[in-house]
Amino acid sequence: MNSTAKILVPGQEWLVRTDDGKIGALSKSRKGYTFFKNGYAFGFKNLNDVKTQLGIELFEESLKKTAGDVEPKTFSIHDYPCRTKPFDPVYNVKEKLPLYAKNIKSKSRYCAGYYVIKFRKGWIRTFCPKLITLQRYPYFGPFKTEAEVKSVLNNVNGKL
Length: 160
Hints:
Elements: E1 4-9, E2 13-18, E3 21-29, E4 32-37, E5 40-44, H1 47-54, H2 59-66, E6 75-77, E7 80-82, E8 87-92, E9 97-101, E10 110-111, E11 114-119, E12 122-127, H3 131-136, E13 139-143, H4 146-159
Antiparallel strand pairs: 1-2, 2-3, 3-4, 4-5, 6-7, 8-9, 9-10, 11-12, 11-13
């Protein structure tokens, strides 16, 4: 069985998967590492114990091999960037927003590009927010580059 680990929180939490799907989760604790599977927790002192007992090719070794070799894939919808492969991309002409879903079954819609959104604590910049967030809060966007959004954020914060 070929097991791999997907990093959830770098150096802290990992999702352990096989070709068939998720089999458990691994997290770093004060005493070492804990593997969670089917409601049970299994403790390990270090990564070598995890590797030998579970047979999972883990983290630091695999990261060192592929860190410089792999470029992150970028996608776009009507020239606005997004990190995930867009499913059912559309351009909402009324609201002027490039919309997409993250998978085929998803009911949530996301907006491609960079945005500046005003929450209670102030204006923040964000990348590909949910459509419902833009419907609830005032915003500026979409922007195609980080430079554009930084300049708008500086202007907005300067007016406050």
